[in-house]
Structure formats: structure tokens, C-alpha cells
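Submission sheet (multi-component)
Chains listed below:
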Amino acid sequence: MKLDRRRFLTRSAVVLGAGGLAAAGERELGRGPADAAAAQPSTLQDRFPFDGPHQSGVVTRGGGEAAFAALDAIARDRATLIQGLQALSSRARQLTQGTTMGPQEADEPPADSGTLGTTIAPDALTVTIGFGATLFDHRYGLRARRPARLRPMPAFPDDDLDPNQTHGDLLLQLTANRRDTVVHALRELLRPVRGAFALRWSIDGFQSADRGPSPRSARRNLFGFRDGTANPDPRDDAAMRRLVWVPSGGGEPSWAAGGTYQVVRVIRMHVEFWDRVGLREQENMIGRRRDTGAPLGGTDEYQDPRLDLDPKGERIPLDAHIRMANPRTPATEDQRILRRGFNYTRGFDAAGQLDQGLIFVAFNQDLARQFETVQKRLAGEPMTDYVTPVGGGYFFVPRGAAGPGDWVGSGAFAV
Amino acid sequence: MATTVAALSPGGDDGPVHAAGVPHPGIAPAASSAARSSSGKVTDTRLNAQQAADAAAQKPTAAGLRPEVQPLSPRAFRGPVAAYRRYAIREARAMAAPVAALVRALRAGDRGAARAAWGRAYDRYLLLGAAYGALGDLDVAIDGSPGGLARGARDPRFTGLHRIEHDLWTGRTAGEVLPYARRLRADVARLPRVLARMTISPLDYSTRAHEILEDAQRDQLSGAAAPWSGAGLRATADDLAATRKVIGTLQPVLSGRGDALPAVESQLAAFGARMRRVRRAHGARWPRLDALRPREREALAGGLGALLEALSAVPGALETQLPAPVPAIPKGHR
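Outcome: structure written.
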């Protein structure tokens, strides 16, 4: 028996190595054309880098399964906090790159839960680590290192934020092709850091499948509308430098360069209510056709809605979501944000209504100039009646680790 | 609560619970920019609701349209809205008494009496029902929630009924609550005048018919709106009474416009019966939400859902204009 197992482990290591090479060579999903990547069926061997100038999970067109876990730091001192962060990066690196379990001691608890077996395939896993504003309070001597634009997410009009689903010292964003990979990764990541971090809130997300008609067609959210059509192209490096990545200088501490600000908003959608709304009203609230995703008056999802030629809202109402979110004028160009949302579903409320909605995720370089400007413009939009933001937070996602000796966030602690 | 109970019991014992389906008109009703219609394939056609509505919009006088898709004259709403306005002003005036009693109870330091007066004042405000949205800042001052405020329930801008509810049920002293009750008294005194002036369009009024109870399901039966007092069920009864009032005023207009009215009346009766049964089982009082047994909770949630499905046909049945066709996006680049 034992021999068999050892042989199995050796063999899987070889297989994994081959798969890993293939992933690096043929499936550079983070950098290759998104269309091509999307057209290929996802495999267990899909792999995104953990180390690099930027963390994976931001401009990554990655897997459709996700988990968000906000943690509070409970480390008693700075050294313990650093150890916790080092352990997080180290374990995340192993899990995202794929690993094989070594021989286990029969008398000891196994080093891995075993829920994926003995060969941990990468499965497009990304682990993105972000810091909340409260991490930079008095506890760990980080006050002077706080990213200049980081603060706790404010409550916006019509929010109903639950403190138990809001904020946090740290945010882990996990995405992968398959649910079991995400579930395994979160469990494994928490294990070595129990003395440093405690769960504050968490939520699971999923994206709808690519159902066409074209590989470019944006996926649908739980209101049945395509979501993300007007997103900036994450492959456009110049746009990402302008809109997403924090540049050096600009009042930011030097360690913040190459990072980005992440906005997470857990938005309950009152889906039963929405389903009782006429199609025309739904479409007028969004500004697009529900079936094709085309802007009203158009036939193609990616058609320019030409808001400039419809100043009175005869085609697309003046309070339609797409118009208020992105007026498409030169003046609003630098307010655009990179969205990477996920649907969620988690049971039902006391009135028997499904608790479903959107985990709104956006990355931007400047919260005030971008996300908050857009959010304030959306205040009072007709869709407000059908949604309730209940949680989330602002987080700073530092640049990626330089390599196996480095860890995410090390710059904030450099002396 | 006598008023509410009376409104809930229009006569007769609990009848059988009808499971009337949502009526789907033979062609999608003409919808204005913010009106509701049914979706899915339209009966006997291969069109979805959007296509059918488009078709109807281009041929508004085509033969074969059923009466309910012919737009109503806005004049048809004058009587119902006027009747509703008289009712709302009456309810607003009647709110002054429990608010005055609330102030008195707080001055006397009598928490029990203050809570009881709060409940009566909240009933009155909810019975206004269809006025929401027309009251603007005054509605926020009287019925605002703490969710969007920086300091939540401790924010000084959190005022009105729910501020007082929070304070009365979380152990604040009467002296701390009193200023908010006085402020409420002043705000409530302004209500009748504001209601007399408010404009309610036909479209607003016909959507109110189902949105009052949509709010009840989203905010009251879920416990979100009145979390401290647990008054969600009693509040749902108030919202049901307000909906009955609106539907009652619209009855002459709705008659003969498709199947909406009979389905709504049947579901109103069924849900009213479910509510009465629960109230009876709890000693003829509205129990706190958290005192509902699981079966009762399910029966109320499902019954309200079925009523809402029926009510969602009302706005489409009451269209006053055919939608303008959506112009095509001009060709060419910027």
C-alpha cells in the first residue's frame, strides 16, 4: 500500500510539472488575448503567476468561482503580524502554482485537508491580498505608511451597511475555475495564520457562464442583464496605468506604486421584486436591451450608445444606469473603473425572499476621482429601489511579491 | 389598532385561499417609459413581451387589440387620486394624537405608554401608503432609516419614528428621546399641507398599488424597517390596509380592463385571511415578528408573494399612453 502511494505521488509530480509548463507556455491567461482564453475550455492546469509587478486577480480574466474573506488582525505585535503575512504569501504561492503533498506522518494531523486529493492542481487559482485602512492604525506602527487615498468605505445614500459584513484589516480575494479549489484554498490559507488574523466576514461568488453569442459577450448578472460591457480593456496596459495602477509619486508612499485600490460592495438584489417589473421599465432603468445587451435603440452590445446625440433622453433615459455610471464624455474618461463582479446567492431572508445579488468589485487608482465620483452620480437612480448595499469595504492591493523570498505587503514594513 | 383591523376584515369569515395565477394579457400591454408589463413569450404568438409591445406601439389603433391595451385617459385618475388625497390628509391629521401622546408619555417618563403611542403613530404613517415618494425630505425626517448615515443609528441626522423606536427599545432614557419626539410632532404637523399640495401622476398612482406591499415584503416582513420594536407584522397589516384603499379607489377604472382586478381581489382576500388567522392565534394581537412560528412565517411570506404577483399586473392594466418607439442610434462614428 505504502509503496503504491509513494509511486503515485512521484508520478503526479511529473504530471503536474508537465501541466505547469504547458500553462506557462500555452495558456498565459493573464496576458494573452482574453477572447482566445475565453474560447478555450478551462482546465485544472490553468495557472496564473503569484509573483510579479502586480498581483494576479486584478486585470486577470480568471476563473468564475470566487470567495472573499475579510480578516481582522489579532496579532499581538508587529513581528507576529509580519509572520502572518509571510505565511499567507507563502501558502498562496504554493496553492496558486500547484503542489503535491509529501508523505504524511500517520500520527500527526495531515498538513493539508486533502479535499483535493494529494495533487493540488493550480486550476487558475488567484489569491489577491488587500489591506484595509484600519491596518494602518496605532497597533503595528504603520501609521506613516498608509496609502494616501485609503480610508474606510463611507455609507452612501440608500446603503444599509451591516457592520458585520463591512470593512476589515485585510481582504483575501480568491478566484479559480472550480468551486472546490476555492473552498480548499481558503481553508488552507487560514490555517497557518490563526494567531495573526481572524475572520470578520466572508462571501462566496460565482460568475455566469460564457453563453455567447460571441466570446466577447459580457456575462449576465442576476437581474438578467449583461454586466461589464463597457469595462475598460484589462489588456490595454496604457489604460490600466491611467485608471488602475497607482503610479509612483502623487502623494503616495513609495511602497504603494504598482498597487491599486479595491472596492468591494455586497449588493443585495431584490430579485422577486425585479421579476415583477415590466421588461420595458427594466430596460429603461439599465439603458440596454435585456436580450442582446445593446444600448437602447441599437442592435449590438458593443455599439456606442451615442449619449451625446440623445441629450433629452428620448432613446436612453437620462437616469438610466449606463448613462449615469459612464456618461462617455472626455471629462469623465478618467473616472472609469475596472469592474470584476461576481454573483452571490446565500439562502433567504426572514420574509422568505432569496438573498441574492452582486459582489461588486472594482479596481481604481484613486477612490475619490473614480469610484466615489461614479457612485455619487448614481445616487437616486431608479434601480435603487431594487437593490440594497449591505456590506463590503475599501482595500489597498499592494504590488505583487518579487519572488519566493518576498511577500505581499513587505514594502509597508521596510525600515 | 381598531382601524387597521376593521380595514383588514371587510366582512365574512376566512374564505378558502385561492391560488389565482397572474393574468397574462393576450398581448403585452402598452407600456410607458416606466410602466410594467408581463415578460416571456406572449400567448399565441412567437413574440416576447418587448417585441409585442414594440408592435403595439407602432400600430396603436390596429384592429383586434383588447380593451385593456387601449390607453386610458389621464382624466380617469382624477376621481381616485382625489379620493385618496382626502383619505391621506385625514390619516395625517389623525397622526397628531398619538404623537402628542408620545410626547406626554416621555415627559412623564412612562416607557410603556411611550412605546404604545409610538406604535399607533407608526400605524398612521404607514396607512398613508401611497404618499411615499411624494413627500421628499419630510418623509426622510419622519420615516428615515439609519443605513445611509455615517454613524448609523447614533447619527444625529437619524430622526423620526425609527430614531424614537431605536431609543425606546434600546434602553435610552425618556429625556434623551424627548427632543426627537418634539421634532416629530413638528414634522407631522406639516404633513396635511404637504399632502394637499403633492402631485400624484396616474403612473405614480397605479404603481403605488403594488409598491406599497413590495416595500412591506422587502422591509417589514423581513424585519429590516422596524428591527427594534419587531413591529414588522403589524406594519404589514397597515400596508395591506393602505393597498386596499388604493385598489378600492381604482376599482371603477380597473373594472373591465382584463383579469387584473378579480385576481387582485381574490389574493387580497386570501392574504387578509392569512393575516387574521395569525393574529387570532396570538391572542388577537399582532405578535412581534420573532414570535411567529415557522409555519406562520411561511404562510405569510408565500401569501404576500402571491398577492404581489397579482398586483404586478395593475400598472400595465392602467396605462395612459402608448410608448413612443425607441429611435435607432444614428449611424456613423463620433
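Remark: Residues 1-40, 56-64 of chain B have pLDDT under 50 and may be disordered.
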